[in-house]
Amino acid sequence: MPRGLFITLEGLDGSGKTTQIKRLADWLEIRGFPLLLTRQPGGTLTGDRIREILLDSRSSGLATLAEMALMFADRAQAIAEVIDPALSAGKIVLCDRFTDSTEAYQGGGRELGSAAVLELHRLLCANLQPDLTLLLLPSLETSLDRARRRNERHSAKTGQDENRFEREQDAFYRRVWEKYREIAAREPDRVVTIEGNLGIDQVHEQIVEAVAERLVIAGRPT
Question: Which CATH number belongs to the domain containing residue 149 in this structure?
Answer without folding.
Answer: 3.40.50.300
